[in-house]
Amino acid sequence: MRYRSFLAALVFAAIPWLVAAAEQGFTNRATELKDRGGADATTLATLPENTPVKVLARGGGWTRVEAGGRTGWVRVFHLRFPSTVESSSSSSGLAGLGAALGFGGPKTREATLATTGIRGLSTDDLKTATPDPEALRRMQSFRADRPSAERFAREAKLAAVKVAAPRQGEGQ
Predict the structure, then answer these.
(1) How far apart, in whole angstroms, are the C-alpha atoms of residue 108 and residue 96?
(2) Cα dist. 5→14, 16, 108 in Å?
(3) CA atoms within 13 A on the CB side of 86
(4) DSSP secondary structure code for residue 154 in this structure
(5) In which region does residue 134 sit, left (phi positive, over 0), alpha (psi from -120 to 50) or beta (all else)?
(6) CB atoms within 10 A of CB 72
(7) Using CA atoms, how far apart are residues 74 and 33, in angstroms rounded to an integer?
């Protein structure tokens, strides 16, 4: 019984460390640190590419971070999160014994991942939808003209990619 209590305490003590470890990220380009999550928010600072950030909260397309002693919001697409990837050979027999003793075993390397969840509309959302002229006005204020969009793409080092349309019956 004591063993279970000790194990439970150890697991609960490790959870904050594991969560904090998973919340370290870096900017993947120069980006603005905003006072709140919104394009029209006040810019507090400009964070250079590869700035380390600590993730504090997530909200829609924005992430609240701490960077260089300052706290604010950055666009979620302007962040990347390192991850350790293991590739191992057989863990049985002598290879497993060698790995357990610290000789050889799984090899680790760092990989950069960018993941973002995007929520769609449910059937209920569509059934209960009501017009919101103010939201439409705000959305239209984010519209960019062609020269602005092209300048953004150049600065972000984006490249045009042609994607073939799915053939009849595929991807549907």
Answers:
(1) 16
(2) 14, 18, 33
(3) 7
(4) H
(5) alpha
(6) 24
(7) 5
| Alpha carbons 100 and 78: distance in angstroms, whole number | 39
Q: What is the DSSP letter of 57?
A: E
Q: Quick one: which of 28, 34, 5 has its CA closest to 113?
A: 28
**Which of helix, strand or coil describes residue 171?**
coil
Tens digit of pLDDT at every position of the chain (172 positions):
555 555 455 445 544 444 444 479 999 999 999 999 888 899 999 999 999 999 999 887 899 999 999 999 999 889 988 765 444 444 444 444 454 445 555 555 555 555 555 556 677 777 888 888 998 888 888 888 889 888 988 988 888 888 888 777 665 4
